[in-house]
Design a protein that fits this description.
single chain; 149 residues; alpha+beta; 5-stranded antiparallel sheet
């Protein structure tokens, strides 16, 4: 019976926190001028990212849509917590390695520059119909057969 009482007490305390404390703290933080300025600056930088059309030798030659090609470096900067205007990763920093057949998928790979010389790759994985399944990055090297450069 004691366990039941403790469980009910924990549930009531968590409900009270969710009902009263979280909204109160959220409102306090969101009305803070420093927070508002930080959010505004973040939005300005992200909007600039979206409006910037970067140049890179591989844009327009991978067989992917231009929208996907342009999204890849933006995605990587978001993942790395970088902004283009602050010296973040540029599309021209990426080296296109080609499209590889890795059954049942086709995968486009790029090498990402690394300060510690460890191999890092970005990739766009396609399904059987050629539709994009995922944009991702990691240290797994391309496998399978290269089908185009």
């Amino acid at each position: 019976m004691k366990i039941f009482a403790v469980l009910i007490t924990v549930i009531v305390v968590l409900w009270c926190i969710a009902k009263f404390a979280v909204p109160f703290l959220t409102q306090r933080v969101s009305s803070d001028p420093e927070y508002k300025q930080a959010v505004s600056e973040y939005e300005r930088k992200r909007n600039l990212e979206e409006a910037t059309l970067e140049a890179a030798p591989w844009i327009g030659v991978t067989g992917l849509s231009e929208a996907i090609e342009r999204e890849l470096p933006r995605y990587l900067r978001r993942e790395f917590g970088e902004f283009l205007e602050d010296g973040g990763l540029k599309a021209s920093d990426l080296v296109y390695l080609g499209k590889f057949l890795e059954p049942p998928h086709q995968v486009h790979y790029w090498r990402i520059p690394s300060s510690n010389n460890e191999p890092i790759f970005a990739y766009v994985m396609l399904d059987e119909n050629g539709d994009v399944l995922a944009l991702n990055w990691g240290n797994e090297e391309p496998k399978g057969v290269v089908t185009s450069l």
